[in-house]
Amino acid sequence: MQSDLIVAIFSGLGGMLGWGLADFFAKKTIDKIGDLTTLFWSQLIGIFPILVLLSFKPSIPNFSYFDWLCIVLLGIGEGISYIPVYTAYQKGKVSLLSPIFASYGVFVAIISAIFFNERIPLGALISSLLVFVGILLINGGIKEIFRMKSGELNIKGLPEILLASLLFSFWIIAFNFFVSNRDWLLILLFIQFFSAASVFLYAKIMKQNIFVADKSLWKYLVLIGSAGVMADYFIAYGLSLSSHTAIIAILSSAFSLPVIILGYFFLREKISKIQIVGCGIILLGIVFLYLKL
Question: In whole angstroms, what is the distance from residue 91 CA to residue 157 CA?
Fold first, then answer.
């Protein structure tokens, strides 16, 4: 049981680091080519690292027709989950919207406990609150909320970001059921492909150009795609071997933490006192995961 918890913590931290790195490198591209273009190309590029990993596998699993249906739906679901995130970011303030999206970890914990009888350790319950408060602090969300007046509480992009958080919560749970105790690497490849395809189709429907003219941005798109696949790899690894779905989701949702740290060391970005407190609270939440009833 202890090893099961360690796998969950390890994979959740890997997901947090991967998505944090992806967000860090995305700063170089989003302002120049837009969120949707960045999302499509990073997902498409992410296919190639998975192909490299598959080349080391001695055998390839066979899928039934039902498996293929699930894979296609999971791929489309992942793409659909990310699209409203970027739509919300274009409408409102990221400092308010990012911690709301990160609440998918809490949603997963609640859904898993109520509908699937997942027993969540006391440490995970305490951690979910600590991590969420820490995410709010490092994104400046609490500061923004206190700045608002009573008549300004309508947060732009709120419906879209809540929808994204709920969709991604259910996607993680569905993905967990499908990859549990399975050879999941090839599954990850096709999910990545269908996710990119769904984003491409959405861009076409919205008549948005996804051409990248600036060649200097491709290296960042490669890094974003590789980091995103790293996150998916760790999460799939954890979900396939561990029963602690909620813990994996809660830890991975703290992806703002590595963004703040990397920005400080490599971009010389200033970290406010409240962000330092937020980082400390997230780390404290991770420690609490070792508490079990």
Answer: 5
CA-CA distances (angstroms) from residue 276 to 72, 139, 247, 271, 272?
A: 41, 11, 23, 7, 6
Q: What share of the chain is helix, strand, coil (3-state, %, to 5)?
A: 75, 0, 25
Backbone angles phi, psi at 60, to 5 degrees: -115, 130
Give the rounded distance of the alpha carbon of 27 from its chain centre.
16
- Please report the DSSP string for 59-108 in residue order: ------HHHHHHHHHHHHHHHHHHHHHHHHHHHS-HHHHHHHHTTHHHHH
CB 191 within 8 A of CB 44: no
Q: How far apart are CA 239 and CA 180, in angstroms?
A: 6
CA separation for the pair 219, 124 (Å, rounded): 38
Tell whether 293 is covered by a domain: no
Of 35-39, 73-77, 128-132, 172-176, minimum mean pLDDT range: 128-132
Domain count, the chain: 1
Classify residue 193: in a domain, yes or no. yes
CB 51 within 8 A of CB 271: no
Q: Specify if 27 maps to a domain.
A: yes
- pTM of the shown model: 0.88
User: What would the two tokens of residue 8 be?
Assistant: 């969950």
Give residues with Cβ within 8 angstroms of 76, minimum separation 6: 194, 195, 198
pLDDT at residue 2 greater than cutoff 70: no
276 neighbors 140 (Cβ within 8 angstroms): no
Q: Looking at the domain assignment, is residue 273 inside a domain?
A: yes
- Domain holding 43, by residue range, is 2-288
- DSSP reduced 3-state for 154: coil
The Cα 134–Cα 283 span in angstroms is: 9
Task: Summarize pLDDT for 45-80 with one digit per residue, the tens.
Answer: 999 999 999 988 877 788 999 999 999 999 999 999
